[in-house]
Structure formats: structure tokens, C-alpha cells
Amino acid sequence: MTNPTITVVHLLRHGEVYNPQGVLYGRLPGYHLSELGRKMAERVAEFLATRDIVAVVASPLERAQETAQPIAAAHGLEVLTDERLIEAANVFEGKTFGVGDGSLRHLRHWPHLRNPFRPSWGEPYREQVARMLAAMHSARDLARGHEAVLVSHQLPIWVTRCFVERRRLWHDPRKRQCSLASLTSFTYHDNEIVSVSYTEPAKDLLPLKKTVAGA
């Protein structure tokens, strides 16, 4: 029996975003990394500097592209773009989200919350998983026998991990293990995912926990 070809695909959540209004920015354009977010991206690039990275792919959103840049530069690569890595669609984009002064105080928004299992306020979890896995498999083929970094967003990364680990997809958002600039890494033997690991290269840079308006 021949030994399997080992490939690692890292799903990297982007760094902190400059968002002084605290809106849920979702797929909206114009949201860039903050100064701290740029430091996070550099920290991840340092962490991965000795890894066998042969491909860096990012969501088309600015925060993901900017997080990918220092990693690609460290390995002499260009950042590729894959639309399948984009943030989940959400009807509350551009709004603050809360009970006191956010979207939840308006009755017209309540019907969007009727089904948290799907979820009813945005792109279904299973659709997110399907497109993320497709992007990962493409990266696996591109980097076969080496490693690839895919820069994406918290919710798509988290539900993909849940699916691979055979957990339920609906969840408490406060319990996601997917901090800013974290790496969720999938190891393939040939075409099969055999393990998942999680690291936080920028853990010491993370701001105090608070309600996060975008991901």
C-alpha cells in the first residue's frame, strides 16, 4: 500500500476590522482592517513563515484580501480570490444588531428570526458548508502534497468545521471557536480529511471579548 499524499488546508479568519459604528457589515464593501488587524495579519504571516505554503486564496472582501497579503508576500506568492470563501449573506447587513438600540427593537425584523436552525436571517448553513468545502477541495488540488491558506470569515469557517466534525450546524454564536486571525487547519490524506486542528497565532493581540458586529 502506498503512503497517502498529505495536504493541509488552513482556513484563516481575517484580522480585526475598523468599524467605529459597530454595524453588522457582512458582505458590504469598504470595511478594511484596523491597525490592530494589520498587526494580526503580520503575526499570522510570521507564524506560517516556515510552513510549506504554496497557495494563498482569499474571499473577495477587503478585510480578507488584506489579511492574506503578508502571508502571500512571505512566500513569494500572489493572492488568489475565490468567491466561495465570502462571508455569509445576512439580512441585517448595515444595521446594528441588539435589543436596546439595534435591529431587534423593530418588530418588522422579528420574522427574520423565526428559524435559528436554518437560519432564517441569512444564507442557510448547509449552503455555506457546500461552497466552503468546494473551495477547500480546489485548494487541496492546487497545493497537493503541500499547504494552502484560505482567508475567510467566522461563520463559514465555523459551520464547516462543525460539519466535518459531525456536529450540528445550528449553535450559540457566543461559543464559536474561531477568533480573529485564527487558523482552523484541515489535514487531507489524498482526498479525505482526516483531522482538524485549531490555533490562535495572534491570541495576545485579541481585544477584550465583546459583541462582534461583523465576521
From TrEMBL:
It comes from the Bacteria. One of its GO terms (cellular component) is cytoplasm. InterPro entries: His_Pase_superF_clade-1, His_PPase_superfam, PGM_Phosphatase. Coiled coil: none annotated. Transmembrane segments: none annotated. GO terms for molecular function: phosphatase activity. Pfam families: His_Phos_1. PANTHER family: BROAD-SPECIFICITY PHOSPHATASE YOR283W-RELATED, PHOSPHOGLYCERATE MUTASE. This is Phosphoglycerate mutase.
